[in-house]
Amino acid sequence: MEVNAITERIIGAGMSVHSALGPGLLESAYLGCMVHELRKRGLRVESEVALPVEYDGTRIDVGYRLDLLVENEIIVELKAVERVLPIHQAQLLTYLKLSEKPIGLLINFYVLHLRDGIKRMINAQPLRPSASSVVQTNDKDFR
After folding, report:
1. What is the Cα–Cα distance from 78 to 69, expressed in whole angstroms?
2. How would you classify residue 70: left for phi > 0, otherwise alpha for psi between -120 and 50, otherwise beta?
3. Which of 25, 55, 92, 142 is the most exposed place for a label (fewest CB within 10 A)?
């Protein structure tokens, strides 16, 4: 299935969940309902997927977890916060780079209309498989 078609189905699932539950619940409630709704729509979904960091040739599990991984292609990061902050967007971008996935959705359920709580992000700079650091820099002294 094409990436845009998958993201459309994910957004549709989010809208169904939000319409049924509204804002104000904990993120974990939306997570469980999203898993159910996505599976109901025929999508493969995994929740709380471990995301290790590769450093110095070693994979290190430092506790990063993807909220949802849909069709092994799209990362969905769920929030239930009053306002999405730049750190939330940075978190999703980092997850995209570490996992080398192409597209991520940041969905904040703490909004009146879910369309105002959805941000689609693209992985424009995937890490090289042999990268030894999460941070990318142009400064040659840090290589």
Report:
1. 11
2. beta
3. 142
